[in-house]
Design a protein that fits this description.
The structure holds two protein chains of two kinds.
Chain A: H1 4-29, H2 37-53, H3 59-78, H4 80-83, H5 86-106, E1 123-124, E2 127-128, H6 131-154, H7 156-166, H8 168-173, H9 178-204, H10 214-227, H11 234-248, H12 256-270, H13 281-292
Antiparallel strand pairs in A: 1-2
Helix pairs in contact in A: 1-6, 1-9, 1-10, 1-11, 2-3, 2-5, 2-9, 3-9, 7-9, 10-11
Chain B: H1 2-32, H2 39-57, H3 60-86, H4 92-113, E1 129-131, E2 134-136, H5 138-160, H6 162-172, H7 174-179, H8 184-210, H9 219-232, H10 237-256, H11 267-278
Antiparallel strand pairs in B: 1-2
Helix pairs in contact in B: 1-5, 1-6, 1-8, 1-9, 1-10, 2-3, 2-4, 2-8, 3-4, 3-8, 5-6, 5-8, 6-8, 9-10, 9-11
Classes of the chains: A mainly alpha, B mainly alpha.
Chain lengths: ~290, ~290
């Protein structure tokens, strides 16, 4: 039986999977580490909330603006990635996350510490979307995002991305502009995060700066790494695993978070390439069984 | 004017504590090129161990030594079981491992000691001082003298001993120094011993300074010190110390005087982004 509890968990997982797919474009395809993805998730949520609550737009008219603003801010904040690399970039993106969260929390326009409440539900064909219909709406958006990612890996641009990821200097010597493709990755990834944030805002109907804090970014990156960086289905599988596990651990009550973090540690320690990545356990088993057939 | 000096002294004390935490992070980054986020968890464990030893034996000296030894073992354990096997992967893999270690340790401390704030009622062996109206508490004197002592010892080790020479060699190039006959893995472990022992002392000092110890006390320093090692220049110990001092004073002054509605915890990151845009090798880092 599909209880409303299971639907809630499922909806949250699908919404997060959209954001993690966006992170995959930045980290997996373009090879730029980002530990501030929750900031863009939050920017999407806040933009959509303000446009619908304060400006009175509907979700559908607000959506293109949300995605555009998410991409634009992603473009601006992607600029540091041109200047700094790897460890510096990781710390810079952590900083971006802290600064964005602080702005949400301390500027009265964003609702301050109280956050924004009373966000309307999405209307589609005169139906207020909640429960199972909303779950399928989110699933629909996730399918679009996965399709874009899949189409992207087949395009010429993905070759440029992989070239930059593997060896930036060599790629630029071959005439591939690292600046252009890195920024493209940031814009794609952050607009997906903004879409996911918008869905989140209209699902929860109440948002607060704490929903977009740094631990959320860590969660996104953990999901991506566990699933398999740079793969199409890795982000989805990682999100499902890390979304379902805390619920399965619920009987452990007080030891729940400990088990969750220890499991994360064990998985990253023994499967650092992710469950679907190169040389991973799942991939080995799959290829072995298919060879036998 | 007196409040100004008292604020300044508080700021320097804050900066000293940041410096002690940043020190370990910089040393670890120097030899391993890993962002050791779990360092802040080691510092939390140090504070708890110190509190436990102090309340059971009553000796502050024993608390400092015991916590340092305990944290050194913990630090080496993290290095051997988590970081070393993950060295060959891209840098974000050990980073996530480090964050997982930190969250696990925080949870373990919460389960052992409870989620509440414990007080650290330390009796220091010297009185509060007051110079022409400027009040200097005994905790500030303790923070200053211990920080100065640690910095002096570390400076001596790194510049006057063979161990220091080996550490500097490993931080320049780990594989070449291995080829030169240095047991680089041992040096990495010794770095973790030093860094973690200093973190334990910093944890106890924070506990005494604020008179509180709680499981998530490492959460904010964990990321703030990352910003500090960038501002100081990745891998530069003196840069990290200077950046910590500046941040400690700036934070305290901003809260005391400028009444801006901005959280002080974001200040370190704003400074960091400014430094990255203006001089990306940090204030003391060498340009590569």
């Amino acid at each position: 039986m599909l209880s409303s509890y299971a639907i809630t968990i499922g909806t949250i997982i699908v919404i997060q999977a959209i954001a993690v797919c966006g992170l995959n474009v930045i980290v997996g395809f373009a090879g730029q580490i980002s530990l501030g993805h929750a900031a863009f998730f939050g920017i999407g949520a806040y933009t959509s909330a303000i446009l619908t609550v304060k400006a009175g737009l509907s979700f559908w008219t607000a959506l293109p603006i949300v995605i555009a603003i998410g991409g634009l801010i992603g473009l601006m904040l992607g600029l540091p990635s041109i200047r700094v690399r790897e460890d510096f970039l990781a710390i810079t993106t952590i900083g971006i996350n802290f600064i964005v969260e602080a702005l949400f929390r301390y500027i009265p326009f964003f609702g301050g510490a109280l956050g924004i409440g009373g966000i309307p539900r999405i209307m589609l064909f005169d139906i207020r979307m909640k429960g199972i219909p909303f779950f399928f709406l989110c699933l629909f958006f996730l399918c679009i995002v996965i399709l874009i990612c899949w189409w992207f890996t087949r395009s010429w641009a993905s070759l440029a991305f992989y070239a930059i990821r593997e060896e930036e200097t060599a790629a630029s010597a071959m005439g591939i502009s690292p600046v252009r493709f890195k920024l493209l990755a940031f814009v794609m990834g952050t607009s997906m995060a903004a879409l996911s944030g918008s869905l989140y805002a209209h699902y929860m109907q109440f948002i607060n700066a704490g929903d977009f804090s740094f631990p959320v970014s860590v969660g996104f990156l953990s999901m991506l790494v566990l699933g398999g960086i740079g793969t199409i289905w890795g982000p989805v599988i990682g999100t499902v695993i890390l979304g379902v596990l805390p619920e399965l651990f619920r009987p452990l009550v007080d030891y729940r978070i400990l088990f969750y973090t220890l499991l994360l540690l064990v998985m990253i320690r023994f499967q650092p390439g992710g469950l679907l990545g190169e040389k991973s356990l799942v991939k080995n088993i799959l290829s072995r069984t298919f060879k036998r057939c | 004017m007196n409040t100004f000096f008292e604020q300044l002294l508080n700021g320097i004390a804050m900066g000293s504590i940041y410096a002690l935490v940043t020190l370990g992070l910089t040393l670890v980054y120097g030899v391993m090129r890993i962002l050791h986020v779990a360092h802040a968890a080691v510092y939390t464990v140090g504070a708890y161990m110190g509190l436990f030893l102090y309340s059971s034996t009553g000796s502050l000296l024993l608390a400092f030594f015991g916590a340092s030894i305990g944290c050194a073992i913990l630090g080496v354990g993290i290095e051997r079981f988590v970081y070393f096997p993950l060295m060959k992967y891209p840098p974000f893999v050990p980073l996530i491992g480090s964050i997982a270690v930190m969250l696990s340790i925080e949870e373990i401390m919460r389960l052992i000691a409870g989620p509440y704030i414990l007080t650290f009622p330390a009796k220091l062996p010297f009185p509060d001082l007051s110079f022409s109206g400027i009040y200097v508490s005994s905790t500030i004197i303790a923070v200053y003298s211990i920080t100065a002592l640690i910095l002096l010892v570390l400076w001596y080790i790194s510049s006057r001993t063979e161990l220091g020479l080996a550490m500097r060699a490993v931080s320049q190039d780990i594989s070449i120094s291995g080829a030169m006959g240095i047991n680089s893995h041992l040096i990495v472990s010794i770095t973790f011993v030093i860094g973690s022992a200093v973190a334990a002392i910093a944890g106890i000092l924070v506990g005494i300074y604020y008179n509180q110890v709680y499981p998530t006390m490492g959460a904010v320093p964990a990321y703030k010190t990352l910003a500090l090692i960038v501002v100081g220049g990745l891998g530069s110990v003196s840069g990290g110390v200077i950046a910590s001092m500046i941040l400690g004073v700036a934070e305290t002054m901003l809260i005391g005087y400028a009444n801006i509605p901005f959280p002080r915890d974001a200040l370190a990151f704003i400074a960091m982004i400014g430094v990255l845009m203006w001089r990306s090798e940090g204030i003391m880092g060498s340009s590569r």
